[in-house]
Design a protein that fits this description.
By secondary structure, this protein is mainly β. The chain folds into two domains: 114 residues; 107 residues, no CATH class. Helices cover 6% and strands 33% of the residues. Keywords: Signal.
Length: 254
């Protein structure tokens, strides 16, 4: 699919409700806020969980939203031409329509980014642009990992630093901040937003508090972080529940 921009640039979990166990960044302890969010983010774009649950197809949109998508063009003037069966409505307003689609997760062991599982596309009405005639244009097209919206905190990438030991209650993790941080680690800013243990799995939501001040955007290094469960892990699956569609946490480089 062609992509360009004119501007700068339940599924499985909604809010996790309890915190069990404890954790510490190495070597200091980490605070544990009370709950996770009930909203989603796709590359910074706010997405309602209700929209993800409803998955309203493009064929069911009202006439205004359908007109916006039909008339929208890329910045080179070519039509948008979405495949209707792939996309569903995320949000519609008088001057914009946001649509979303699922994409296959393809982890890249060499990348510190969370592998995308969705694509978001926004068309916007532009009537006052100096270099464009009035009309509907694609204003954003991005792949993203759909995450919980944690407000000021961001959802990081999580990997195991060492293989989890079924007989241990300690998880040794590597946490990589996904927002700009001038290439520094996240030491002292990682928080357990939620840790929910059942007999079959462990759902973990981590958040990273931002540093104050402006930040550049080189890749951030991974930060060691230790989580202590209430009981030995056993055969339970450990899920990154900071993602709207939780995934098993993998060993680093896998």
């Amino acid at each position: 699919m062609r992509r360009s921009r004119l501007t700068a640039a339940t599924i499985a979990t909604a809010a996790l409700l309890a915190i069990v166990g404890c954790a510490s960044a190495e070597p200091a302890s980490a605070p544990m806020p009370a709950s996770a969010s009930d909203g989603f983010l796709c590359g910074g774009v706010s997405i309602s969980p209700d929209a993800v649950d409803a998955r309203v197809p493009l064929s069911d949109l009202d006439s205004d939203a359908r007109t916006a998508l039909t008339e929208a063009t890329w910045d080179d003037g070519l039509p948008l031409e979405l495949v209707e069966d792939d996309w569903y409505l995320a949000a519609a307003a008088e001057d914009s329509v946001t649509v979303l689609r699922d994409v296959e997760v393809a982890p890249d062991p060499a990348s510190p980014a969370i592998a995308p599982d969705h694509e978001v596309l926004i068309v916007s009405r532009m009537d006052d642009a100096s270099n464009l005639p009035p009309g509907w244009y694609v204003s954003r097209s991005d792949d993203c990992a759909l995450t919980l919206d944690l407000g000021e905190r961001s959802v990081p990438a999580i990997a195991f630093a060492t293989p989890p030991d079924p007989e241990s209650s300690t998880l040794h993790l590597l946490v990589t901040e996904q927002t700009c941080n001038s290439g520094a680690d996240a030491q002292g800013r990682i928080e357990i937003v939620s840790l929910v243990e059942t007999g079959e799995q462990v759902g973990l939501v981590l958040g990273v508090r931002p540093r104050t001040g402006g930040q550049d955007c080189p890749a951030n290094p991974a930060t060691p972080f230790t989580v202590t469960l209430s009981a030995p892990l056993g055969e339970r699956t450990i899920l990154d529940a900071g993602l709207a569609v939780p995934r098993p946490i993998a060993l680093v480089g896998r």
